[in-house]
Design a protein that fits this description.
The structure holds 2 protein chains of 2 kinds. Chain A has a single domain, classed as MetI-like (MetI-like fold, Orthogonal Bundle), CATH 1.10.3720. Chain A is built from 14 helices and no strands. Chain B is 23% helix and 36% strand. Chain B is built from 9 helices and 19 strands. The chains are: A mainly alpha, B alpha+beta. Chains A and B meet through helix 9 and helix 10 of A and strand 6 and helix 3 of B.
Chain lengths: 293, 355
């Protein structure tokens, strides 16, 4: 802080500090406190707000515990998000390794550009592309039918569609942390492992993955949180059987008109995501500060 | 006896660039062999071809009588010590050393025992559970050597492993490497751009320049009988006098130069009438008015180096001259700014044809 003042002087330093504090208070603290406040109050008609029935209660949170369908969707969202993170890792790790260690700088630039360009358009539009690809009479089914791999068109919308859409949507969030981590690995370490007789598998298991651990954990945490909070992919690519917890939250707010219960559901999702993230980092023995880098 | 390494007309091209051209030499089993050259001369490329990281585009490499064509680094009886050492920073020292055994499926107890044995060999007992980051440069060096020796290679390949150490430690590690090589009997192939390192440690040295092998020989041989101008200039300091060969009698050539007539031993490929250069070492120049060959230089400065001093002079035509004066004789050294006579003996100079 004194460094800030030394660099920018008293006036400018204070302005910067005030801006950061205002941002933290207005954009981070206030909405979360309001959400907690909403979550702990009952949903009342306007006339009764502030009245004798307007007391803090855990009813909204307990409602989820007793509602079997919502509870099932909640847990499914958690493990399905973990699955999304895992599948994204499986897709990204070989690519990140190739980009960081094997590819020429021209190849790296080209592939990173090709991966980044789709992200210049909105997530909804990108998901719509998958909506078209995966349609019952869409290009994927046509291709698979013509190749003779399937003899009936497949209904991709549902779990498969949601997974595909999410893995695609979050590739960059997984790719870049891993790419950065692997790129900093001295090539001669891989050569040394090979020289000492290590198989490709052992080289990765013992040398590359331990080195890239912080990057992998960061990518998994990003992807998991984004997947758990995703709305577009399940809404567009899902089916009635593949509902996502965010859709239920949305319904409480905009269909059910019960902001309090919606806020309670959102709060539970937030807390559980945080818990999963912290446990993951603990298992990977990575600090939050490493992730922030 | 450890394996020998033979290179037969080996060449390596990266696209249009030919990094190594037509190199042929044989490293005998159990020999300490150095490849010496300035950076970019192709010496690391040669080492990586012997290790199996690169496949030569021409010629063949034979190790222990077996053609290595198409074999990767994990299939060759070689182990490499990298310039960066490439220790695995997240494994304790003993796991680093035993990594090659781990890949061969050796059990944990046997791995640990072998690691301890090697730690004793490199005088690092009790360091097995440290992490590489907790060791000093010299200790890390020794761990890298132990890790390479753990797989019991026939040939150890060393890519300038001492370049990151300070001078004192480097000198110490030179002696240690040499002793280790003698004790284990493993063939060492050592890459360096430091000619004093190559001269001090090696049984034989190959000198490379611009992808071409210049000369292979014992250190003393390279120093006294350079076969090419490059070797004469690169290995040790030297003075150069340019001229034309006017006569060759038995082993002595006479060279006509702007400074007068000089005589020296006949070098490789010399003939009468051609332009050539005479090379004479700084320590062969004596501060004396009389001798077989005489020349006069204006003394510009004298640099005290410790065991000896180097006198820098200028000849009449403006070219430089370096003479070495033992520190014990500094009192009689020529004063700066005065002309001074030097002489050298025929047998201490060599005349080589211009390339």
């Amino acid at each position: 802080m004194s460094d800030l003042y030394r660099r920018f002087g008293g006036t400018l330093g204070t302005v910067f500090l005030a801006l950061v504090l205002a941002w933290l208070a207005g954009m981070v603290l206030a909405p979360n406190i309001m959400m907690i406040d909403y979550a702990l109050r009952p949903n009342l008609p306007p006339a009764e707000i502030g009245g004798p029935r307007d007391v803090y209660t855990l009813d909204n949170i307990l409602y989820l515990a007793n509602e079997a369908v919502h509870r099932a969707i909640f847990f499914k969202t958690i493990w399905a998000s973990a699955l999304v993170a895992f599948l994204t890792l499986v897709v990204c790790y070989p690519l990140a390794y190739w980009l960081a260690q094997t590819a020429t700088s021209n190849q790296t630039a080209l592939v990173l550009l090709a991966l980044t360009i789709p992200f210049w358009i909105n997530e909804v539009l990108r998901t719509l592309a998958w909506y078209i690809l995966l349609a019952f009479r869409g290009p994927l089914n046509v291709l698979l039918l013509s190749l003779g791999i399937i003899d009936q068109p497949v209904r991709w919308y549902g779990n498969a569609g949601v997974l595909a859409g999410m893995v695609y949507a979050y590739i960059l969030f997984m790719l870049f942390p891993i790419y950065n981590a692997i790129e900093s690995l001295d090539k001669s370490q891989i050569e040394a492992a090979r020289d000492l007789g290590a198989s490709v598998w052992r080289t990765h298991w013992r040398v590359v993955i331990p080195h890239a651990k912080a990057g992998i954990a960061t990518g998994c945490v990003f992807t998991f949180m984004l997947a758990a909070g995703s709305y577009v992919a399940p809404a567009l690519l899902g089916a009635p059987g593949s509902r996502w917890f965010t859709e239920i939250i949305y319904n409480w707010f905009f269909e059910g008109g019960d902001w309090n219960r919606g806020a309670a559901y959102a709060l539970i999702l937030l807390v559980l995501c945080l818990a999963v993230v912290l446990v993951t980092l603990r298992i990977a023995r990575v600090n939050l500060t490493d992730v922030a880098k | 006896m450890s394996h020998s390494v033979e290179l037969h007309n080996v060449g390596m091209a990266f696209g249009q660039t030919r990094a190594v051209r037509d190199v042929t030499f044989t490293v005998k089993g159990g020999e300490f062999f150095s490849i010496l050259g300035p950076s970019g001369c192709g010496k690391t490329t040669i080492l990586r071809m012997i290790a199996g990281f690169l496949q030569p585009t021409e010629g063949k490499i034979v190790i222990g009588g077996r053609d290595m064509q198409g074999l990767g680094p994990d299939q060759r009886p070689t182990a490499m010590i990298f310039q960066s050492l490439a220790l695995f920073p997240l494994m304790p020292v003993w796991e680093n050393i035993a990594f090659g055994l781990e890949t061969r499926g050796v059990g944990k107890a046997a791995r640990r025992a072998k690691a301890e044995e090697l730690l004793r060999l490199v005088a690092l007992e009790g360091f097995g559970d440290r992490m590489p980051g907790e060791l000093s440069g010299g200790q890390r060096q020794r761990v890298a050597i132990a890790r390479a020796l753990a797989v019991e290679p026939q040939v150890l390949l060393l890519d300038e492993p001492l370049s990151a150490l300070d001078l004192k430690l480097r000198q110490h590690m030179r002696a240690e490497l040499r002793g280790l090589q003698k004790r284990t009997g493993v063939t060492f192939i050592y890459i360096t751009h430091d000619q004093s390192e190559a001269l001090a440690m090696s049984d034989r040295v190959a000198v490379m320049s611009a992808g071409v092998l210049q000369q292979v020989g014992a250190p003393r041989d390279l120093y006294d009988n350079p076969e090419t101008p490059f070797v004469a200039r690169f290995v040790g300091e030297t003075n150069v006098l340019a001229g034309r060969v006017t006569a060759i009698e038995s082993d002595i050539a006479t060279l006509q130069t702007p400074q007068g007539l000089f005589r020296g031993r006949v070098g490789y490929g010399l003939s009468v009438g051609t332009t050539a250069k005479l090379y004479v070492r700084p320590e062969a120049l004596e501060h004396a008015a009389e001798g077989e060959n005489k020349l006069t230089a204006m003394i510009e400065r004298i640099d005290f180096e410790g065991a000896f001093a180097l006198a820098y002079g200028k000849l009449d035509d403006g070219s430089g001259l370096i003479a070495s004066i033992p520190s014990t004789g500094l009192a009689a050294a020529p004063p700066i700014g005065t002309p001074c006579s030097f002489s050298f003996r025929n047998k201490h100079a060599v005349v080589l044809p211009d390339v």
